[in-house]
Design a protein that fits this description.
Blueprint lengths: L14 H6 L13 E6 L5 E7 L8 E8 L5 E3 L12 H7 L5 E6 L16 H15 L4 E10 L1 H11 L5 E7 L5 H6 L7 H15 L3 H4 L10 E4 L9 H10 L5 H6 L33 E9 L4 H11 L5 E9 L19 H14 L11 E5 L4 E5 L9 E4 L11 E6 L27 H5 L3 E4 L7 E5 L2 E8 L5 E9 L5 E10 L35 E6 L3 E5 L4 E7 L16 E6 L5 E4 L1 E3 L2
Helix pairs in contact: 3-4
Length: 604
């Protein structure tokens, strides 16, 4: 089935119905009315495009997209390709409905000068405030600014709001992290090394205009795309060439993110610089309480982007805010539900964003404030649901793990010998965040999951609805002082088909829990991942450890069975822990020693 907003009765006014009341009123210009450099206080020049609705009169509210992925490509002569593959959908939705759109190349990228001194550099955050100053000084600006974008530009909208700029009224961080360390590169304290290398290849290709490398990225494989577009004043391209020369000094991702094995680790040349400095949560106190926030993610959105959207929503409780979680991968390029009607999502996300900016930026009465603040999609039921809170309901159950592979609480021990060759494959939640064009997810899961140690429940007498974070509470031992524990939740259908539902992972040296800080509010077990909190396991000594799985909305059908599986590695995405010592992981069962906590309830 499709993920359309008509599945269920989750909205008083569905996004598509709202958009029907907001037809395009203005023509979209064929190119930006202006493309120019904006000078930063340190002299670095940032390239920006300005899109204005044709024949609009009066001042306009502005939406800013601050991106490292080219504000606009130059095109081969006569080519009809889309010059703005990253911003076009926003341009086409907002500009004809009366918004100005400014798209800016982040420093060290595109046609902008400077270097990227880190991933999501604090300097870019400061730049966004200067860009906002420039916007409100323009004759077409009404002094109100919103911001949005997918992934990196989504987090940039957080950073803009966190500067406290008085013009910022609404932001929509789409598929964006809250904590760059745990939501992105180090989930569970485990480095996604393959992701770091893939992203580095992408950014070297873009920042240095290496079109031979960029052709390998499906998003930018069209030969009509001829590198970053110069600004209007750069008629001969000399300024663009000078900017690209400066990009040669940009940060390299594997070395950079690999240098933060603990969340509180600092750069050796800058003791104040931890990964908090490149995380939106670190600056959240700068966001004024009147700034509206739309938090959007998908159940298969990378290593923890859904956690980021939820934590942003929970943390910013004083702000007008909304949460939308769908059956999507990173950027909602694909509907990842096994029961999807088609690859491409049909949910009108741009309609919902138009309504959001109309309400909070343009000042229209859209009825959005009267809608439930949380909307989630339940896979298998294939229906949208509204909720007044996160998690969507308070019902739960605890299933006791048993020694014979069931949820019967039988006492004993279950041992899993880590197979360093086992991997989850190439159709997973991790490919899309590396700019890999994944389209089918876990199609070979049944064969892969069969090689793991598992616990399987009895057939369900009624359908059960899982909403939120499952948490495995295990009494666990390792034969080595360290180990990676990866847990997978599956649904086993009546016909024996095994479908991946969600997963969680934890490096056992990070097993110590801590109260969540005020800047990262969450409803699942939180850890500091600090160097001082890390401690090796005593080999053979069992300890109680809680491991949260990533959130999901999933309806288990009557007659199907729930399965929890355990692995000691994922060779396709992470490295070994410990090096060259594949551990035997033992789980003690009986007398409540090991439990699977499920936020589920009978289908209403």
């Amino acid at each position: 089935m499709p993920d359309t907003d008509s599945n269920g009765a989750a909205w008083r006014v569905a996004p598509s119905a709202y958009l029907a009341t907001r037809p395009a009123e203005f023509a979209l210009p064929p190119r930006p009315q202006r493309s120019c450099y904006i000078a930063m206080p340190d002299g670095v020049r940032i390239a920006a495009d300005v899109w204005l609705p044709e024949r609009a009169t009066g001042a306009l509210p502005t939406i800013l997209i601050h991106t490292p992925y080219y504000r606009r490509f130059a095109l081969a002569p006569g080519a009809m390709a889309e010059a703005c593959p990253n911003a076009a959908k926003f341009r086409d939705a907002f500009v004809p409905r009366g918004y100005a759109l400014v798209v800016a190349d982040a420093r060290g990228t595109g046609a902008s000068f400077g270097t990227r001194d880190s991933f999501r550099s604090p300097r870019e955050r400061a730049d966004s405030a200067t860009i906002a100053d420039w916007i409100v000084a323009q004759p077409w600006s009404d002094g109100r600014i919103g911001a949005t974008g997918i992934s990196y530009p989504g987090a940039a909208s957080d950073f803009l709001a966190s500067t406290g700029h008085p013009a910022v009224r609404a932001i929509a961080p789409l598929f964006a992290v809250w904590d760059t360390w745990s939501d992105h590169y180090w989930p569970g304290g485990i480095l996604l090394g393959a992701l770091a290398q893939s992203y580095d290849d992408l950014m070297v290709a873009m920042d240095q205009d290496r079109r031979d490398m960029l052709r390998r990225v499906s998003y930018f494989a069209d030969p009509a795309l001829q590198g970053p577009a110069p600004v209007d004043e750069d008629a001969d391209g000399a300024l663009l060439r000078a900017a690209l020369d400066e990009h040669a000094g940009n940060v390299r991702q594997p070395a950079f993110v690999g240098g933060f094995p603990y969340r509180d680790e600092a750069l050796p040349y800058d003791p104040s610089f931890t990964m908090a400095r490149i995380s939106p949560y670190h600056y959240r106190r700068g966001i004024r309480p009147d700034v509206a926030i739309y938090c959007v993610s998908g159940w298969m959105d990378g290593a923890g982007y859904a956690n980021g959207a939820i934590a942003r929503y929970l943390t910013m409780a004083e702000n007008p805010r909304h949460l939308l979680l769908g059956p999507w991968d990173h950027g909602a390029r694909i509907n990842t539900s096994p029961w999807r009607a088609a690859e491409a999502p049909e949910f009108p996300l741009l309609a919902e964003l138009t309504r959001f900016f109309d309400e909070y930026l343009m000042g229209r009465d859209t009825g959005l404030r009267a809608e439930a603040p949380v909307h989630v999609f339940h896979q298998h039921a294939e229906v949208w649901q509204a909720a007044a809170q996160w998690p969507p309901h308070d019902e739960s159950a605890a299933l006791p793990l048993g020694a014979a592979g069931g949820f019967d609480g039988a006492p004993g021990q279950v041992a899993h010998r880590t197979d360093p060759r086992w991997g989850s494959g190439s159709g997973t939640r991790y490919e899309r965040i590396a700019a890999i064009d994944a389209r089918a997810y876990h199609t070979d899961w049944q064969a892969r999951e069969a090689r793991l140690t598992s616990w399987t429940g009895a057939p369900l007498a009624i359908s059960m609805e899982l909403s939120g974070h499952a948490v495995a509470e295990l009494t666990i031992a390792s034969s080595e002082p360290d180990a990676s524990v990866l847990l997978y939740l599956s649904e086993v259908a009546e016909d024996g088909t095994v479908r991946y539902v969600t997963e969680g992972l934890l490096r056992l040296i990070h097993r110590a829990e801590a109260p969540h800080p005020e800047d990262y509010v969450c409803t699942w077990p939180w850890r500091s991942f600090a160097r001082g909190a890390a401690r090796p396991m005593v080999p053979g000594n069992a300890e109680r450890v809680r491991i949260p799985l990533l959130p999901t909305g999933w309806t288990f059908a009557r007659g199907s069975r729930l399965r929890l599986s355990l692995s000691g590695t994922d060779a396709d995405h992470i490295g070994q822990h410990p090096h060259g010592r594949p551990p035997v992981i033992s789980v003690t069962t009986g007398d409540g020693a090991s439990l699977l906590h499920l936020p589920w309830r009978a289908v209403p």
